[in-house]
Design brief:
Elements lengths: L10 H11 L5 H9 L3 H9 L8 H12 L5 H13 L6 H8 L6 E2 L12 H7 L1 E2 L1 H15 L3 E4 L6 E4 L9 E2 L7 E2 L1 H12 L14 H18 L3 H12 L5 H15 L1
Parallel strand pairs: 1-2
Antiparallel strand pairs: 3-4, 4-5, 5-6
Helix pairs in contact: 3-4, 4-5, 5-8, 6-8, 10-11, 11-12
């Protein structure tokens, strides 16, 4: 979770907030985050350290503003804050019950491949998403209300899980299908049902890093826009991907081919 400072703060106070929230970043750098400009350079700054975790609320907000320049990064992040302030929960199950199910956020089973499902502003507006964006909601709201939730990068279907406590027990959740808890065996059955594969590995239920979550969301958007031959949207997605160190080399080659073929 990351909380943006109010624009009414004095420079001195804001500098203190910057040092606390974004260690090593300058006031002018964070001011650009707040103003919602230069999203690709700012995304590059956010992702520049290969392997480092990133704040998901900020990363997804930057992706959304890159897609739609009429949006504001700070306003999007405040939507996470406002949602967290609107619910009361003390346990992971209460959190899931507050966020997901009928009349709340749910999976888009009708238009799963709609790119809006991967753009956080649209997820907020429509209360529809895919497993990974709904999972991000659970993780970010959970962090704000003191109920930590981990992302589980199960192939083909992102899940969430409780963070082990003193008894090391873990409960899994599939926000796309509702707030109900799942056991590890039920997750395995879900995987087999969705993929028709018999290659289950217990590592599929290992927690994934926030960095991997961002890459996976951009993978989804790239694949959708490629299938639609939507060159304009492929361009901005690939521009974001070119500034992620572990993707840079191959993505730059692909982006160069895209530019040559579309000019």
């Amino acid at each position: 979770m990351i909380s943006l400072p109010s624009l009414a703060l004095t420079t001195a106070t804001l500098s203190g907030v910057v040092n606390a929230k974004w260690p090593g970043n300058t006031l002018s750098t964070v001011a650009r985050y707040i103003q919602g400009i230069d999203t690709i350079p700012q995304f590059e700054l956010l992702m520049k350290s290969d392997g480092a975790d990133v704040p998901l609320d900020l990363a997804l907000s930057l992706i959304a503003v890159t897609a739609n320049a009429d949006l504001s990064v700070s306003k999007l992040i405040r939507r996470f804050d406002d949602l967290a302030a609107s619910i009361q929960c003390a346990t992971p199950q209460q959190l899931m019950n507050s966020l997901f199910g009928s009349g709340k956020f749910t999976g888009n089973t009708v238009e799963y491949d709609d790119p809006a499902n991967s753009l956080i502003d649209q997820v907020f507006d429509r209360r529809l998403g895919i497993p990974i964006t709904l999972g991000v909601l659970a993780m970010e709201i959970g962090s704000r209300v003191g109920v930590p939730i981990a992302g589980i990068g199960m192939p083909g279907h992102f899940l969430c899980a409780t963070v082990p406590g003193h008894d090391d027990s873990i409960t899994y959740f599939d926000p796309f299908h509702g707030p109900q808890p799942l056991t590890a065996t039920e997750c395995q059955n879900l995987y087999k049902r969705l993929t028709s594969l018999d290659n289950w590995c217990d590592e599929f239920l290992m927690p994934t890093s926030s960095r991997q979550v961002v890459v996976r969301i951009l993978n989804n958007l790239k694949a959708i826009y490629l299938r639609r031959n939507d060159v304009a949207n492929i361009r901005w997605v690939m521009r974001l991907r070119t500034v992620i160190p572990e993707l840079t080399a191959e993505e730059k080659r692909q982006f160069a081919r895209l530019v040559r073929s579309s000019n």
